[in-house]
């Protein structure tokens, strides 16, 4: 997709550094001064450093349930499995016990990524050799075949949160390589590009205001303002960003699409995407506001190469809805100024 390929790699690095505070560690400092030909090189360099940092700190372990038929009984006897597998014929019983092991999903994803990258011709020889050299540290970890569904099963807590940045970058890089190989049509390539960067874009917008502004920054779920308390089957209203200051609340949603506006037919008038407007309108109307509180909504689109870009302010039922387009191709200092100016439209 032309728009995404034109985003400077340096700006993607800055987006990552905001979205993930880990990238500000001293080990990553050299990355900010390097030039990369494409985003795959950036992700690969991050992984080569980040996985080494993880190994140095020790791979995380957790208690895993193990089922086997050993010669010596340990743990709990599993009667059902013993009968099902007829292990008594060999004078054995099936047992189940917990083992404190490195063979957890997070380590499995990293090992699977290392194996995938070590054999990918999309990665340069020096980097492939580096990834191959890290594999011995994952000897006790199961080698899983990578699948995007693996990441959906990942859960973080205080003990393993240090993995989040690296495991996310594993996904970013895997998707880049996977879709390069499998996507043939231009339409599919645009859809894949949109999916790959949308989550990073959302994380970046939130983290930017958290670090660079003096607003109260949060991203709570908004509860439906129902009359009878019945909420069964209503969709979750999960916000991307909420800014608050001086009895004012701005509910913002980050949007990263291949097309920001739509026309009913070729050459027709470009219109706002109705689903996005309905979404932000629902947010501001269901927000439980205080007696003197003023609430507004904002859609922050990533600018595309199309001629028509969203840049509007609507006044609906005494509430403002701002629609803006952020140019990710401009210098990063200008990106920062643009984001702050968007909020200023409401708070100033």
From TrEMBL:
Domain of life: Bacteria
A Pfam family: McrBC
InterPro entries membership: McrC, McrC_bac
GO BP term (any one): DNA restriction-modification system
PANTHER family assigned to the protein according to its UniProt record, in alphabetical order: PROTEIN MCRC (PTHR38733), TYPE IV METHYL-DIRECTED RESTRICTION ENZYME ECOKMCRBC (PTHR38733:SF1)
Protein name: 5-methylcytosine-specific restriction enzyme subunit McrC
């Amino acid at each position: 997709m032309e728009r995404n390929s034109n985003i400077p790699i340096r700006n993607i690095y800055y987006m990552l550094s905001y979205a993930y505070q880990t990238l500000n560690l001293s080990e990553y400092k050299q990355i900010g001064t390097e030039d990369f030909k494409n985003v795959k090189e950036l992700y690969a360099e991050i992984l080569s450093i980040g996985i080494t940092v993880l190994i140095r700190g020790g791979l995380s372990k957790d208690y895993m349930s193990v089922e086997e038929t050993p010669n010596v009984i340990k743990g709990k006897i599993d009667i059902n499995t013993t009968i099902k597998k007829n292990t008594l014929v060999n004078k054995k019983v099936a047992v189940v016990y917990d083992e404190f092991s490195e063979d957890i999903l997070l380590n499995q994803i990293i090992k699977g990524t290392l194996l995938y990258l070590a054999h990918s011709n999309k990665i340069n020889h020096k980097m492939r050799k580096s990834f191959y050299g890290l594999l011995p540290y994952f000897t006790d970890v199961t080698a899983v075949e990578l699948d995007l569904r693996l990441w959906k099963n990942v859960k973080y807590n205080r003990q393993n949160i240090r993995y989040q940045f690296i495991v996310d970058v594993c996904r970013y890089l895997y998707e880049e390589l996977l879709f390069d190989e499998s996507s043939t049509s231009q339409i599919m390539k645009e859809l894949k590009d949109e999916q790959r960067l949308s989550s990073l874009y959302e994380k970046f917008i939130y983290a930017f205001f958290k670090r660079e502004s003096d607003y109260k920054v949060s991203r709570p779920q908004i509860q439906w303002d129902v009359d009878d308390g019945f909420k069964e089957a209503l969709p979750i209203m999960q916000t991307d960003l909420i800014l608050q200051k001086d009895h004012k609340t701005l509910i913002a949603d980050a949007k990263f699409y291949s097309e920001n506006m739509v026309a009913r037919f070729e050459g027709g008038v470009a219109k706002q995407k109705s689903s996005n407007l309905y979404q932000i309108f629902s947010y501001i109307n269901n927000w439980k506001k205080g007696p003197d509180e003023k609430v507004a909504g904002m859609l922050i689109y990533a600018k595309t190469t199309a001629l028509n870009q969203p840049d509007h302010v609507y006044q609906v039922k005494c509430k403002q809805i701002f629609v803006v387009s952020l140019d990710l191709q401009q210098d990063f200092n200008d990106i920062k100024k643009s984001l702050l100016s968007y909020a200023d439209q409401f708070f100033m």
